[in-house]
DNA sequence: GTTGCGTTTATTTTT
DNA sequence: TAAACGCAAC
């Protein structure tokens, strides 16, 4: 650990051990390095025990990376007991320990958005009088928003008087009650319940305050009210809280992140030291100048400017294209040309866009040109129906009170428990105020159930009980799961229910991937359990297994495609920011709602600062939308970049066999040959 | 319980 | 344009 490699500010931050510290770290200022050095410094120089350290991040990826870097710095042995995790994993851990104090059982289910929406739909059906269809997702969003602001059901008040608010006010308490009856918690509860646990049971809080002597938080600008309170409680009197963040990179306001947390840190923690890291080690001068110019238009921010001791680099390219197809082609041409001229690998390119749907045109073109790529985000693996079905079975095995998932699998695959039977069971459950599972177990006692139905139900109960026991006994979870899915014939059901055989094949593969994910979980984990696996799945704590997973492990050389949001924290030698048009960036919805354009500008800033050497901005003059051509207007943020930094071009549409195109074709030819040779 | 057809509706970002 | 949904007919 060589402290002399740090600049003055970085060194000051590393050496600040006790008391609150606000580290304002601009993009590319070596922030992660400072955090890891600081952890190392505390352990090595200050004799802090690893178990007394807690570092919190937002994404599993960031947590994993930080952990690896610390281990590399101070040695794996010195890291034993140190916790570096996301807010959500940390809180699940805490809840696993003491949630019984709040009246839940330890085998609680974690509900993701899809589960939540399903439950809310059911509840709305029960409430709904006028037969009008309301958007359950919107209600889900409103409840989530309330939870992020720590508003419990009983305190939810209608402020704007729109019909959705009234509906939310009605549904929210029922929703929360149902969750508890199902022994389930949703994503927002993970944080909110932990805060409540600490507040209502000071002895529990004290336990953790005793343990965690030094707290560190990355991406502090993204914390919401609940997370803020959590940190505050944990920091306690000792106030050894070091937060790292950049108000200019706050892009999760829509998820309840409160920019006030970072802007008011000095007020919340009087006497806090403030250190700014403004020297940038990532990008060229031109790129930084553009970034500074754009973000300078925001009013709500702490004044700062990135600078570099390096040179200006190449100008930023701005390419005006005809339409989305043309845009994709332009990007491909650039990739080929850059790769050729500067001997770059595919993995050194990233294509960034505002919305996930924009990836499509690029994917098509990349596939057409045989360029390998990885797509980050988009349709989540665990959101696919077949995956959710499989996971639902496992969830019910662990927690039989989980009725959302119980109802999901009750008659899937078909086992003779039709709608009428299900309705009768549900009614019996409601009338007797007993959990649905108990009713199922006692199906024989329900008179209005036919003999056949009774048999079907008890068969299902027996099946679940049998496998619950097997899972509890065997260490070989993956094999048991495979057998389980085979026995209930999930695969057959997929083939039957999918007309396109190709799609069916895909889905079956996805089902297999669930078992594979479980197998790799078993390898990694010291004391594996079914509920442990489900926890990882719910928190998306695994590299998402998709059909590329094997190759991906070999660090495939591929172009990266992702949203601007997912790009935060990453860097690439060449970055394409595509779709630089009004209504994309800033996004249409933001404009309509008259909401915060500043957050969109920050998003733009995040994108620009991902680029190390070369930044290419593209936009289309027209674009197909819902099958119709629409004229497009260049993004207002482009005008905020000083003209002298830009090299503006117009794509020539399709020039008949230009030099560049010939080069493209030649490259395609060669990459085709390489592909044939198995390169 | 399923299939097929016509109609509607899109509209952001994710732990 | 495309996917998702509802409804009617099997």
TrEMBL record:
Broadest EC class assigned to this enzyme: isomerase
Superkingdom field: Bacteria
CDD domains assigned to the protein according to its UniProt record, in alphabetical order: DEXQc_UvrD, SF1_C_UvrD
Domain UvrD-like helicase C-terminal: from-to ranges: 285-569
EC number, UniProt record: 5.6.2.4
SUPFAM superfamilies: P-loop containing nucleoside triphosphate hydrolases
GO MF terms held by the record: helicase activity
Ranges where the UvrD-like helicase ATP-binding domain occurs: 4-284
Reactions accelerated catalytically: ATP + H2O = ADP + phosphate + H(+); Couples ATP hydrolysis with the unwinding of duplex DNA by translocating in the 3'-5' direction
Residues involved in ATP binding: 25-32
Keywords: ATP-binding, Helicase, Hydrolase, Isomerase, Nucleotide-binding
Pfam families: UvrD-helicase, UvrD_C
Family indicated by similarity: Belongs to the helicase family. UvrD subfamily.
Protein name: DNA 3'-5' helicase
Organism this protein belongs to: Desulfuromonas versatilis
Gene (name only): rep
């Amino acid at each position: 650990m060589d402290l002399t490699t740090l600049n003055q500010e970085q060194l000051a931050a590393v050496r600040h051990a006790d008391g609150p510290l606000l580290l304002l770290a601009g993009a590319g200022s070596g922030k992660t390095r400072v955090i890891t050095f600081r952890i190392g410094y505390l352990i090595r120089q200050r004799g802090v025990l690893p178990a007394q350290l807690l570092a919190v991040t937002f994404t599993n990826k960031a947590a994993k990376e930080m952990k690896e870097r610390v281990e590399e710095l101070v040695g794996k042995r010195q890291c034993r007991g140190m916790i570096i995790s996301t807010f959500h994993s940390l809180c699940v851990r805490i809840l696993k320990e003491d949630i019984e104090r709040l009246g839940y059982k330890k085998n609680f289910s974690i509900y993701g958005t899809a589960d939540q929406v399903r439950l809310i739909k059911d509840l709305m059906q029960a409430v709904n009088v006028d037969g009008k269809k309301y958007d359950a997702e919107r209600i889900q969003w409103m409840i989530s928003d309330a939870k992020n602001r720590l508003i419990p059901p009983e305190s939810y008040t209608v402020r704007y008087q729109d019909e959705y608010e009234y509906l939310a006010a009605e549904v929210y308490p029922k929703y929360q009650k149902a969750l508890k009856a199902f022994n389930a918690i949703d994503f927002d509860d993970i944080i909110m319940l932990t805060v409540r646990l600490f507040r209502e049971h000071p002895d529990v809080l004290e336990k953790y305050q005793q343990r965690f002597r030094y707290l560190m938080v990355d991406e502090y600008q993204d914390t919401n009210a609940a997370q803020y309170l959590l940190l505050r409680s944990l920091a306690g009197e000792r106030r050894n809280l070091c937060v790292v963040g950049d108000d200019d990179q706050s892009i999760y306001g829509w998820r309840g992140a409160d920019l006030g947390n970072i802007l008011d840190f000095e007020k919340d923690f009087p006497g806090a030291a403030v250190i700014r890291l403004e020297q940038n080690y990532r990008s060229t001068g031109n790129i930084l100048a553009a970034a500074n110019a754009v973000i300078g238009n925001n009013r709500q921010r702490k004044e700062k400017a990135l600078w570099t001791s390096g040179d200006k680099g190449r100008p930023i390219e701005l390419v005006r294209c005809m339409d989305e197809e043309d845009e994709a082609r332009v990007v491909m041409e650039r990739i080929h040309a850059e790769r050729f001229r500067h001997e770059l690998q595919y993995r050194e390119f990233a294509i960034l866009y505002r919305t996930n749907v924009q990836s499509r045109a690029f994917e098509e073109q990349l596939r057409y040109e045989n360029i390998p790529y990885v797509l980050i985000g988009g349709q989540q693996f665990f959101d696919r129906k077949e995956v959710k079905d499989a996971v639902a079975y496992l969830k019910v095995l662990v927690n039989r009170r989980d009725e959302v998932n119980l109802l999901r699998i009750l008659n899937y695959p078909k086992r003779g428990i039709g709608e009428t039977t299900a309705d009768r069971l549900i009614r019996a459950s409601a009338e007797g105020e007993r959990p649905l599972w108990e009713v199922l177990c006692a199906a024989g006692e329900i008179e209005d159930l036919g003999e056949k139905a009774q048999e079907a139900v008890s068969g299902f109960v027996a099946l679940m009980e049998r496998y619950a026991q097997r899972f509890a006994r065997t260490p070989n979870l993956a094999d048991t799961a495979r057998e389980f899915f085979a026995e209930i014939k999930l695969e057959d059901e997929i083939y039957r229910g999918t007309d396109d055989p190709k799609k069916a094949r895909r889905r079956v593969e996805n089902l297999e991937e669930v078992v594979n994910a479980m197998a790799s979980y078993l390898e990694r984990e010291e004391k594996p359990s079914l509920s442990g696996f489900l926890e990882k799945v719910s928190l998306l704590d695994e590299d998402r297994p998709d059909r590329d997973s094997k190759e991906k492990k070999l660090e495939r050389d591929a172009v990266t495609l992702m949203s601007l949001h997912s790009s935060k924290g990453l860097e690439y030698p060449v970055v394409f920011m595509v779709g630089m048009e009004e209504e994309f960036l800033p996004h249409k919805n933001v404009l309509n709602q008259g909401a915060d354009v500043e957050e969109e500008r920050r998003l733009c800033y995040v994108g620009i600062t991902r680029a190390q050497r070369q930044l290419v901005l593209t936009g289309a003059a027209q674009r197909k939308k819902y099958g119709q051509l629409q004229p497009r207007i260049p993004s207002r943020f482009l005008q905020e970049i000083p003209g002298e930094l830009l090299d503006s071009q117009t794509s020539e549409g399709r020039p008949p066999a230009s030099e560049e195109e010939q080069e493209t074709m030649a490259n395609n030819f060669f990459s085709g040959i390489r592909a044939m040779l198995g390169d």
